[in-house]
Amino acid sequence: MKPLGEVTGASLPERVQAAVDAAAQHAEAVDREGRFPIEGIEALRDGRLLGLAVPAELGGEGAGLADLAPICTALGGACASTAMVFAMHHICLANLIDCGLESPWHRELMHRAATDQLLFASSTTEAGVGGDLRQSICAVEAEGERFNLAKAAPVISYGEETDAIFATARRDPDAPSSDQVLCVLLSDQYELERVSTWDALGMRGTCSHGFRFKASAPTEQILPRPFADIAAESMIAGSHILWSSVWCGIAADAMAKAQAFVIAEARKSPGTPPVSATKLAEAYARYRTIEATIADALGRWAAMRAAPERAATVGFSLAMNALKVSVSTIALQVVEDCLMICGLQGYKNTGPYGLGRHLRDIHSARLMISNDRIMAGAGQMMLIQRSPAARRA
Ligand SMILES: Cc1cc2nc3c(=O)[nH]c(=O)nc-3n(C[C@H](O)[C@H](O)[C@H](O)COP(=O)(O)OP(=O)(O)OC[C@H]3O[C@@H](n4cnc5c(N)ncnc54)[C@H](O)[C@@H]3O)c2cc1C
After folding, report:
1. How far is the CA of 16 from the centre of ligand 1 (A)?
2. Which part of the chain is CATH 1.20.140.10?
3. How close is the Cα of 369 to the center of ligand 1, in Å?
4. Confidence band, pLDDT 50/70/90 cuts, at residue 1
5. Regarding predicted confidence, which is higher, 96 or 4?
6. Is the confidence at residue 388, as pLDDT, over 90?
7. Model confidence over 148-199: pLDDT tens digits?
8. Where are the CATH 2.40.110.10 domain residues in the chain?
9. What was the pLDDT predicted at 392?
10. DSSP state letters, 326-388
């Protein structure tokens, strides 16, 4: 296969920019109408960006998290819903690549993901366990070479637009709630009955409706590793890095608006810096901690993957949880800082400095696997982790 740059006649930055432009152009309408960001996703498809992480020998470009994170940030500044769809899709793809390279069925799906630019969605949240990723009530029910699965899913983002759903479930009906597997189900192998509609404060274009999900598929489609390992070694870190990158993009765009506002104020009274300039510098200081935290996480991720055993230590898991909790909290503070800087101009839904959509979208960050839940788990880990001071000694 030819390099994708030749196929599409454009470089990676040009392809990303085209998708960013399309997403930005329709962001207001996507938010207002609470509809799927089809224009941004089609532009990602046209730029061959949905298969970016697929290994080159299977038709992709072998992109890693360090390549994907800045794309999430660029998209996040344009349309947070498009960015979150791109991030969630790539988290599913990363699971497929991490666990499926030895399995012919999963290799073929990777190939199709690149050539047909398939879109993947995920169903981990379940009625009765909420956002606890590591518990399932539903179970795989095997019948010979096939299995059935029925799940009450309070949210599946873009469930009606996806080509496949990656669903967690107990290994079998007798398994404990934490003995889970990750099942890959193609859109012609399941039925989705919508039970609730996503009319939400923000991230409205993710169309995260609630469903009764019923599937039947060959057992070979279940990823051949326990979900406990997938979650610990790749999914949680990948999710937290890519989600944080999306939130960084929302904060970056809010910063850009606030800076433009301060510059416009400064032009009105040359020689007298506006009071808001100091606030802008404070917001920038906060914003920089977001960028630095993501860069640190990417460094830890690269080091973990380069280690021969590729095992996530307690320290690594704590760092990835800290990343999610701090970026989701600080990004909200940055957007609020920017609102204070722009004042009424930021509060208005019209005009160049409007920050309503940013503020509503960023409020999802602390809930998307609740920070309280993450900190409760991290608290348990802190009991067995040596303190930072002891590690330096
Ligand atoms: C934009 C968006 C898109 C999403 N897309 C998907 C998707 O595609 N697929 C999917 O499966 N899920 C998706 N989710 C769901 C998400 O991953 C979480 O599961 C969900 O946000 C958690 O919802 P909850 O707060 O109702 O539930 P819970 O996690 O059950 O939390 C309920 C409440 O209990 C508190 N709580 C829970 N545990 C503890 C604890 N141990 N200590 C203290 N307090 C606790 C929480 O703070 C919260 O107030 C999406 C969420 C958002 C916001």
Report:
1. 30
2. 227-392
3. 4
4. very low
5. 96
6. no
7. 999 999 999 999 999 999 999 999 999 999 999 999 999 999 999 999 999 9
8. 121-221
9. 57
10. HHHHHHHHHHHHHHHHHTHHHHSSSSTT--HHHHHHHTTTTTTTTHHHHHHHHHHHHTTSPPH
Tell me the CATH architecture of domain 227-392: Up-down Bundle (1.20)
What ligand 1 atom has the least distance to the C-alpha of 369? 18
Ligand 1: distance of its center to the CA of 278 in Å?
36
Cα–Cα distance for residue pair 328/290, rounded to 1 Å: 9
CB of 124 shorter than 6 A to ligand 1:
yes
Rounded distance from Cα 130 to ligand 1 centre (Å): 6
Q: Considering only CA atoms, which residue is closest to atom 51 of ligand 1?
A: 368
Which residue minimizes the CA distance to atom 36 of ligand 1? 373
Q: What is the pTM of this model?
A: 0.96
Kindly state if the Cβ of 123 falls inside 6 Å of ligand 1: yes
269 Cα distance to chain centroid: 43
Give the nearest ligand 1 atom to 377 CA.
41
CATH class of 121-221: mainly beta
- The answer regarding whether domain 4-118 maps to CATH 1.10.540.10 reads yes
Alpha carbons 14 and 266: distance in angstroms, whole number? 34
103: Cβ below 6 Å to ligand 1? no
Averaged pLDDT, 126-134: 93
What spacing in Å lies between the alpha carbon of 371 and ligand 1's midpoint? 9
**Nearest CA to 171 among 195, 208, 136, 205?**
136
Percent of the chain with pLDDT strictly greater than 90: 89
Count of CB atoms within 10 A of residue 390's CB? 8
Q: Kindly calculate the radius of gyration of the chain based on its CA atoms and give it in whole angstroms.
A: 21
- Residue 83 pLDDT > 80, yes or no? yes
- How high is the pLDDT of residue 390? 59
Q: Where in the chain is the domain with CATH 1.10.540.10?
A: 4-118
